[in-house]
């Protein structure tokens, strides 16, 4: 029996062959967010369990079944964050960022939920989250949606995703609707599946989001939340749609879109795709105006969204452009002989100093010229720099193309940086 230790189920390694695509994705999204004036905040991975019970809701699936919760050595109950909004709100309250201030923030990092692993749903997954505080009008709701739409255009995904929107209304309106929905569902209790029966007394709105085909006729004839919205919520949602219409953003009003977290109110939205099977939501968000004071802060308007990075990577099928952020070296420095090995270390440093951005991989560990050239080719480098005994005697370096036809050229060691920079496009 092997004693090999393996990774935890649902928590995957991201290998070097894929990290360049991840960095390109993260860099591209961050660039869009900065273009809208959003600033990065970095948050702890572990928070007090009570934070998520009070924000997400104790009767949600996340809190009841999915959180990684443990007692630390002091006996405190701690939880690996299942989502980012609660932690961001906690940080803003704790550090005084919400007193008569407007904040536009974003964060990036892993989240954790103990779910059944499947394609597009993992126990450790990564999100980019965006949160705004102190703006109550429909314009910021629209800005969030417009910003997410720009992200899809930058990534070349705008034809792959569809925007769905809805309004959950105010807490009082949603309370009236909840009563009507529960009465309707109770009258057809024999048609509810096991999951819906469990949610009936705890989170009945989530029944509307059921994917069970046998439940769809019951959901279609259920009372509509739109019929219970107060005038203020109707005006707010109408304002959001006016902004989207003016900007040419196509959307579908989905009356069954309710989101799975208790803190949402008024506008909610999702970007969905048909290319990822059952896990088709790649971005979701909305308003959560009551969460800040619920967690002990001042009453503050708030809205945001989160993007699942694994699903974007899957949607791109690994084809995210590598050209702007690549792990592959520009040059691979081949050395042969004791003198060349010593000089090679210094030459590699000289090249990096003289050509900012140049990626130089130095061969280490010895080996014949033939084996070193094989490694140079496998590295993906554009050129091999050759430093052997003959080159050392003449104070020269050979430069051989690896990705195109061409003869090896020879340059003085003190001049090679200038020539290499031109060859790889790092200077005019």
Describe the structure.
- The mean pLDDT is 90.
- This protein is of the alpha+beta class.
- An eight-stranded mixed sheet has the order 1-5-6-11-10-9-7-8. It has a five-stranded mixed sheet with strand order 13-12-14-15-16, sandwiched between helices.
- The chain has 15 helices and 16 strands.
- 37% of the residues lie in helices and 20% in strands.
- It has helices at residues 16-35, 49-55, 61-66, 85-94, 138-155, 171-187, 194-199, 216-220, 231-247, 291-294, 309-316, 338-354, 369-379, 389-394, 416-423; strands at 39-40, 46-48, 68-71, 77-80, 103-112, 124-133, 162-167, 252-253, 265-272, 281-287, 302-308, 331-335, 360-362, 383-387, 396-401, 409-412.
Terminal Cα span: 60 Å
Integer-rounded radius of gyration: 28 Å
SSE class: alpha+beta
How much strand? 15-25%
For the residues shown, what is the average pLDDT?
90
Order of strands across the main sheet? 1-5-6-11-10-9-7-8
What overall geometry do the principal axes of the alpha carbons give? Answer: elongated
Low-confidence stretches: none
Helical run tally: 15
Helix content: 25-40%
Number of strands: 16
Largest sheet: 8 strands, mixed
Please name the defining characteristics of this protein:
8-stranded mixed β-sheet; 5-stranded mixed β-sheet; 428 residues; 15 helices; single chain
């Amino acid at each position: 029996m092997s004693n090999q230790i393996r990774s935890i189920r649902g928590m995957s390694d991201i290998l070097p062959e894929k990290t360049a695509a991840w960095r390109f994705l993260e860099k591209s999204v961050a660039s869009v967010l900065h273009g809208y004036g959003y600033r990065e905040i970095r948050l702890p991975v572990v928070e007090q369990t009570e934070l998520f019970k009070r924000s997400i809701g104790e009767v949600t699936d996340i809190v009841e079944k999915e959180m990684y919760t443990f007692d630390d050595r002091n006996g405190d109950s701690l939880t690996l964050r299942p989502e980012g909004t609660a932690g961001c709100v906690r940080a803003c309250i704790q550090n005084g960022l919400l007193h008569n201030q407007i904040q536009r923030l974003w964060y990036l990092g892993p989240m954790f939920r103990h779910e059944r692993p499947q394609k597009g749903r993992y126990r450790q997954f990564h999100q980019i989250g965006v949160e705004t505080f102190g703006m109550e009008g429909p314009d910021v709701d629209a800005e969030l949606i417009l910003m997410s739409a720009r992200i899809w255009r930058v990534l070349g995904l705008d034809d792959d995703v569809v925007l769905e929107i809805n309004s959950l209304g105010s807490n009082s309106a949603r309370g009236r609707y909840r009563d009507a929905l529960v009465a309707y569902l109770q009258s057809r209790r024999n048609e509810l599946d096991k999951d819906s029966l469990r949610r009936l007394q705890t989170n009945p709105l989530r029944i509307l989001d059921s994917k069970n085909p046998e439940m769809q006729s019951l959901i279609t004839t259920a009372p509509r939340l739109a019929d219970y919205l107060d005038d203020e919520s109707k005006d707010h949602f109408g304002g959001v749609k006016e902004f989207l219409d003016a900007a040419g953003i196509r959307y579908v009003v989905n009356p069954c879109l309710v989101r799975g977290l208790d803190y949402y109110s008024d506008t909610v939205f999702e970007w969905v795709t048909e290319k990822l099977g059952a896990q088709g939501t790649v971005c979701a968000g909305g308003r959560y105006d009551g969460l800040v004071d619920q967690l002990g802060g001042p009453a503050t308007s708030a809205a945001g969204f989160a993007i699942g990075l694994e699903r974007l990577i899957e949607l791109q099928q690994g084809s995210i452009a590598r050209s702007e952020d690549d792990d592959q070296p520009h040059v691979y420095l081949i050395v042969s002989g004791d003198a060349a090995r010593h000089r090679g270390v210094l030459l590699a440093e000289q090249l990096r100093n003289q050509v900012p951005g140049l990626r130089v991989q130095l061969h280490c560990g010895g080996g014949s010229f033939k084996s070193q050239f094989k490694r140079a080719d496998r590295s993906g480098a554009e050129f091999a720099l050759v430093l052997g005994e003959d080159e050392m005697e003449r104070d020269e370096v050979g430069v051989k193309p690896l990705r195109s036809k061409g003869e090896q050229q020879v340059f003085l060691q003190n001049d090679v940086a200038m020539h290499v920079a031109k060859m790889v496009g790092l200077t005019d």
